[in-house]
Amino acid sequence: MTIFLIRRLMQCLAVLIMMSILVFAGVFAIGNPVDVLINPEATLAEKERTIQKLGLDRPLWEQYFIFLRNALSGELGNSFVHNRPAIKLIVERLPATLELSTCAMLIAVLLGIPLGIWAGLRPASVFGRSIMSGSIFCFSLPTFWVGLMMILIFAVKLNWLPTTGRGETVGILGIGVSLLTLNGLKHLIMPAINLGLYPLALVIRLTCSGVQETLPLEFVKFAKAKGIKPQRVIFVHVLKNILIPIVTVVGLQFAVILAFAVVTESIFAWPGMGKLIIDSIILLDRPVIVAYLLVTVFVFMIINLVVDILYSILDPRVRLGGL
Amino acid sequence: MASSIAETPIHRFVSDFTESKVAVFALFVLCLVITIALFGSWLSPQNPYDLTQVDILDAKLPPGSEGIRGTIYWLGTDGQGRDLLSAILYGLRISLVVGVISGSLALAIGAVLGVIGAQVGGKVDALIMRTVDLFLGFPSFLIALILLALLGRGVEKVIIALLISQWANFARIARGAAVVEREKEYIDAVRCLALPRRRIVFRHLLPNCLPPLIVVATVNVAFAITLEASLSFLGVGLPITEPSLGLLISNGYEYILSGRYWISFFPGLALLITIVSINLVADQLRNVLNPRLQK
Questions:
Q1: SS3 (DSSP) at A294
Q2: Distance CA B168, CA B182 (A)
């Protein structure tokens, strides 16, 4: 397990270095970093000072190490618009995005697995068939349009929920959480469902096909023949075996959701980092774009690592293979 | 004679495909959507981007109302007084063109690179596949978003961004298929004929790797259309002069709160019908082309 972890961490490091070279190449080598990272409205003296600080007057390879050092210490230049360190801006918005994405993923998993099992056990029943056709439908729905229609129905016509924004938050360990207040929950529910629809469809389809593939296998027959209760066979024996692909896909989907949160956050004016990046793109606030890229790459690394560790816990074969 | 026709792969493919009535219906709807998109400029009641035909006094009319020139707006008008039906017909074409072009280019580039990787092997293969891994490590939406943030708006830029964000998927699948096909006897046979390597790859290996790629390509066109619509909705995709369905939906965003649902609803419905029909056709294609499910 330790060797597996070390090997995985080394891989993460390799990808991070690779990404940092790519980002560096994109910003410093291809584009003109003076244009990208320094506010066009800055005075000549200000420009000189930033060029000095970012080391833009040095040779390219030296610049790369200065960039790395700056990135590690969170110095990627100031946002043109907010005039504050870009990394700080992103990190401040990160909890809101993570909260939204986690809730979306929870909806997908907690609803998707039971629905998928149902559809897998009774594929011919009316409910089973409507679950499956519903999931194709969910796949095809454009997220942003569904978001608009949800606002139209639940906020404008029925007036049940607030249209946009994030509600009251309660500070836990210095991070605002909106799950604990009624107002916060009311603001959270629509964006979370909106973001969760796509992974929900995916989890349903995976679980359903997993159940259908696992049911005819010998160990299931054996468990049934031993006289184990049907519920136990399904929820312990079958579920354990189909969890492996589900965990992988849920992990990968979490990264997709974090990216797609950009859309949902823009519609529901959710103050996460997705909304920030869109505002920055439109206002050409490039230091924030570079910082967003680095922070997301880092978050994706962590997600992939967690998925791999979970994978090795769930499937002993992977653990042995890693050794 | 009839039996010999029944034996051809095309015939078998058609009869397998038509087994699902839903898929046939979806194919019919898809053909209809494509026809409408192709001939949209002749079918539409007005040219929504010709300022002489648009009247600002007709702005924000609900569906079915009559304009000041006596024209009836079946789907209502948007904030500038454009007929929504016409705007959708024009937008549908741009959405489909962007989706199909970027999807096919990604298929072509990905398939060629994947098959070359499998055939050449060694360092070339490793280089291609590690690049693929790097691209697949990030959601395509994010790759496209960042590229457009750097490139700016524009039709060709959106196509480039969608292409770069999707080719890796095709390359991986093509390589997987090619590795399996490579070991088969007919490839050994053409090798024995001492055909040039290029000819083996492009005339024999590549065509046989196509079936799984076609399924993925169909799904990917639907995905590319959604992706483009989402990006245009966010204001980083297509320019205002070339409005796709995503941009039309985005135009209706500000009117949602006042209950003027039709400006966003109908373009979204058109998008939904297009994507659902493509996905249903793709689903059936997968069933027909999947060798594991063949009887």
A1: helix
A2: 20
For residues A228 and A140, what is the distance between their CA atoms, to the nearest angstrom?
40
- In DSSP terms, B66 is beta-bridged to B72
This prediction has a pTM of: 0.81
Of A142, A163, A300, the CB nearest to B226: A142
All residues of chain A having their beta carbon less than 8 Å from the beta carbon of residue B150 are 26, 31, 289
**Sole residue written with tokens 């529910």:** A189
Separation of first and last alpha carbons in chain A: 7
Asked if B235 contacts B213 with a C-beta cutoff of 8 angstroms, the reply is no
∠ CA A72-A75-A79, nearest 5°, is 140
CA nearest neighbour of A88 among A80, A96, A79: A79
A244, A315 Cβ separation under 8 angstroms: yes
ipTM of the prediction greater than 0.90, yes or no: no
Q: Among candidates A293, A276, A298, which has minimal Cα distance to A23?
A: A293
CA distance A123 to A212: 9
The gap from C-alpha B246 to its chain's centroid, in whole angstroms, comes to 14
Please state the separation of Cα A145 from the chain's center in Å: 20
Q: What is the pLDDT of residues A313-322, one digit of tens each?
A: 777 666 555 4
Give the pairing type, strands B65-66 and A175-177: unpaired
Q: Report strand pairing: A175-177 vs A170-172.
A: antiparallel
| Dist. CA A68–CA A39, nearest whole Å | 21
| Rounded-to-integer distance, Cα A136 and Cα B276, Å | 8
Interface probe with B: pick from A37, A145, A156, most Cβ of B within 10 Å: A145
Residue B292 gets which letter from DSSP? G
B66-79 tens-digit pLDDT: 766 667 666 677 76
Distance, CA of B271 to CA of B262 (rounded, Å): 14
Map tokens 């219906």 to a residue.
Answer: B25
DSSP state of B61: P
Task: Give start and end residues of each alpha helix (H) in B152-209.
Answer: 155-182, 185-192, 197-199, 206-208
Continuous segment of H or E residues that includes residue B94: helix B84-120
